[in-house]
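Ticket closed. Logging final result for FtsX-like permease family protein.
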Amino acid sequence: MSLRLAARFARRELRGGLHGFRIFLACLTLGVAAIAAVGSVRSGIEAGLEREGAALLGGDAEMRFTYRFANDAERTWMKDVATAISETVDFRSMAVVDRNGETERGLTQVKAVDAAYPLVGTPRLEPAMPLAEAFAGRDGRPGGVMDRILIDRLGLNIGDGFRLGTQEFILMATLVHEPDGAAEGFGLGPRTLVATAGLRNSGLLAPGTLFDTKYRLLLPSGSDLDSLSAEARARFEGSGLRWTDARNGAPGLSEFVERLGSFLVLVGLSGLAVGGVGVAAAVRSYLAGKTGVIATLRTLGADRSTIFQTYFIQIGVLSVLGILMGVALGGLAPVLLAPLIEARLPIPAAFSVYPAPLAEAAIYGLLTAFIFTLWPLARTEEVRAATLFRDALSGTRMLPPLRYLLAIGLGLALLVGVAILFSGTARLTLWTTGGLAFSLVLLAISAFGIRALSRRFSQTARGRPALRWALSAISGPREGAASVVLSLGLGLSVLAAVGQIDGNLRTAISGNLPEIAPSYFFVDIQQDQIDGFTGRLAEDPAVSRVETAPMLRGVVTRINGKPARDVAGDHWVVQGDRGLTYARDLPENTRLTAGTWWPADYDGPPQISFAQEEADEMGLSLGDTLTVNILGRDIQATITSFREVDFSTAGLGFVLTMNPAALAGAPHSFISTVYAEDAAEARVLRDLANTYPNITAIRVRDAIDRVSEVLAGLAAATSYGAAATLLTGFLVLIGAAAAGEQSRTYEAALLKTLGAARGRILSSFALRAAILGAAAGAVALAAGIAGGWAVSHFVLDTRFSIIWPSALGIVFGGVLATLLAGLAFAWRPLATPPARVLRDRE
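Final structure:
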């Protein structure tokens, strides 16, 4: 028979409406909509970042230096290519307030600016005033503006005084909006904005202190950013210059958005996989209800391929309908909710209908529908006409013919390949795919195991009829145990994995630190202050340990004479500047893993001791040379040893340590970690800050809280994605419960005819739902813990421990979800008169 005839049959089938395909369409629509919405939001943010690139950056281009200001040659080049230049200085410090004999201190991220700032955009102050007026101050003291959170923390009012270093300032206004704030990246403290000239007598910008200078440039219209970037890097090669331009005004933010979006798309794919289970169950249930139609077609001479083509076309049309609804929902939702989303975003966004993410979601939907519908469709070819009149699919073999298995495998390979292409993260995609495959296999095996165990224990449940009926029903083919365990179990697995990952991240950041972490980090300790600093702490019995080290920052520019990025790729050590130190002797509690330490009096060619783990990741070996740019000076050194560096202790740890002679004469300061009793922390900080007002103290607990805030936002985003996956699983669960309503109606009729009370029958229905939910939750718990361990161990490289509250909540959620769905579809079978049901079955 021809394909045209199959199309005609499919068209007639479609005239029957969507009966039997509501869950099918809901699962497909929700899965595609989630991916389309995530992609649309990401595209909107990326478009906003691109559109506002100059405003975010504060100019058309930026030249950035560490520890120093631009030299004369660099300033001359900037004046030649730019129409306007603005210089900013960024560093951490302590804002100090003296009030009624008491002193309040707060860590702040200071930005000192010149009169040209900002070149693009306008800061918003409260009360409203020009920035120049705010900086003018009064009573002979320069002015400054602060974030509201810092003002509240220090108990300040407009007009009050505060101190940075040794310089007194007047708080003139609250900083409501910093136009280039998004480009500054993550900071440990709220922002304080002052004029650079106002810091002249503060003692905070001495040689060796930690600060960055940024030169924002306005360029003539039509300037070629590519050639200007290449010219600047070539002209000032080895100076430590870092170039950014308006094409990517906030590179760290763009990278974060891209990675988070990719991760959420993969979470959405997990939801689509859950929906795929529902799609397969819906197709199987629909075909089972088409016994008479298919049998009639076979009797009239329709061959196997015609029947397959008929329902393949029908389901294909419905799949396209579900995908279109999902694309429309996912594309329009961000546009309709744009005001709400933009209010929650600290960055610009331009929400619109973007074709690329919608096409991406549609491709995901098509491949998922193909993979999950082909299996049940293929099995119809193996069913004889006589069997179809009795039971649509139960008599077929478990696996479809080989050609269909190959087609399903090809579709799965295409889906994984497309996910890698679109997400740009092959490793994460493969981990996600492997986790989903592992979970599906585990859940499928568990579903068969649950049926087998139920069949066995139903024989031993004599004297407890409700339990025996529940176990007998679960062991039968009509209860849909596989659909319940697969759909709900996979949704719960994703949620369990996200919960375990989030919990272990939080534990890694904060949970284990109080016992091992220092009380404070002190930075910017000058060389003439270090002896007095350590002497004061040595006399304090409340201080248990003090670690100090010289602190410099440098950029690894070349490895073995080649550009560092060409050798080490995007490894974090070669991204931006890194902290480094020097040491004459091997530090205590430090173990060399390879090579030898330099002699105490060594003054030969520069040598480096490198962290072993990072060296392995970058492919470094003993004898390799590194070129490190420090304050514009290139130092080429040879790696002569590797050592263990444990950053998890929150103590001092440097990837690069050099011999002292290699850094002789380089201006630098010291960094220190202080371990003190909790009750003495405030006193230690007060004494040191009063004696050395230029130093900056970072309380470890405050830093942890700041990082935890970022993690909370990330956890919320991933939890929303996992919740969408779970919602899809619940829809599939409802579909499975609805599909089994007819069999429960017949079962209730038989039991009532034999004298069973409605309460006992309802108890049986509730027991089977609870057993299936507990089974799905338990298996999901195992899969989620395994997935969380794998991601924590291999991707995040953090320690793993089971977060039991989250884990037990998963099992309880599984029981509750199946119980609610089961009971929702139990009332009608109980209310149906037995006589009518039994007559219909005759």
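The chain has four domains: 1-58+258-424, 61-222, 439-516+701-842, 543-676. No further action required.
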